[in-house]
Design a protein that fits this description.
It is built from 4 helices and 14 strands. With about 270 residues, the protein is mainly beta. About 10% of the residues have low confidence.
Length: about 270
Amino acid sequence: MKNITTSCLALIAGGAIASPTFAADLVQWHTNSLTYLYGKDFKIDPSIQQTLTFEHASGWAVGDLFLFVDQINFNGKGANDGNDDRTHYGEFSPRLSYAKLSGTNITIGPVIDILLSMTYEFGKGDTEAYLIGPAIDLAIPGFDFFQLNTYLRKSDGGRPGDNVWQITPAWSYTLPVGRSELVIDGYIDWVVDNDENSQGEYHANVHINPQIKYDLGKVLGWKEKVYIGIEYDYWKNKFGIEDGGYVSTELVGSTNQNTASLLLKAHF
């Protein structure tokens, strides 16, 4: 899996080098942002968390790219924190577009593109995973975008969660509100099956993580977008740990997370 992902990224770079004109037009658009989150009632990890997130999204001549890195600061104790007061986690997600690579309009009903979607998950400790699978982009009235990604998960080092399937829709919806707008965007990670080789340690789980945010910068006349709002976080069987199950030999009780965090987000 790691070799497949590396080969696909090399194909992107190789195409850019081979054609100077193509290289000049490689990046079509891009945006970056920083987000601060403060929330309580998290499960497994310490219940109070403050998170600083860097995000990057861009459109390319061959597809698109999304990247985020979280720096998470803990307050209090949890079953899986290892006595650390902080951790980090990130995902690097390139997608190759059939429509862009072929130069063909493939619109079929609401389907406007077919893609090869990849994700590399990384973080502190034993968290590496490689995901790859088919995806489609949909044109749904009212939505800024709507993606439906499917992945086969391959975990590094044989950790639980290897060779299971995941479905990940992602979306953005904008509503005008007075002199500004309300943006509702996010994703759902639905791991639809268990890891049969982990002796029942890894369970099917669903993680629903939307943000609801108001563009304060637009009201104040600022050039860049500055949002205030909340991030909702529901995770059934968090980390694939069965509700009421164990981390190592320690009983953690409920692993069904249901919480919200205050949000401040600035684009640049």
